[in-house]
Amino acid sequence: MEQLIATIEKGQPFFNAIARNKYLKAIRDGFISVIPIIIFSSIFCLVASVPNIWGFYWPDDINNALWKCYNYSMGILAIACAATTAKHFADAQNRDLPKNNQINFISCMCAAIIGFLLLSSDTIATDAASGFNTTYLGSKGLLTAFIAAFVTGIIYKFFIKRNITVKMPEQVPPNISQTFKDIIPFSVCITVFWVFDIVFRAAFGFCFAQGVIQVFQPLFTAADGYIGLAVIYGAMSLFWFVGVHGPSIVEPAIAAALVANMTDNLAAFQAGQHASAVLTQGAQYFVVCMGGTGATLVLVFMFCFLAKSQEMRAVGKAAIVPVCFAVNEPLLFAAPIVLNPVFFVPFVFAPIANIWILKIFIDFLGMNGFMYTLPWTVPGPIGTIMGLGFQPLAFVMLALILVVDFVLYYPFFRAYDAQKCAEEAEISQEELAAKNAEKAAKLNDAFQGKADAKSVAAGAAAEAVKADAPAAVATEATTASDLNGKRVLVLCQGGGTSGLLANALAKAAKERGINLETAAEAYGNHVDMLPDFDLVVLAPQAASYLADLQKDCERVGNKCVACRGKQYIELSQNGDKSLAFVSEQLSK
Question: Which of 492, 553, 560, 563 is an active site residue?
Answer without folding.
Answer: 492
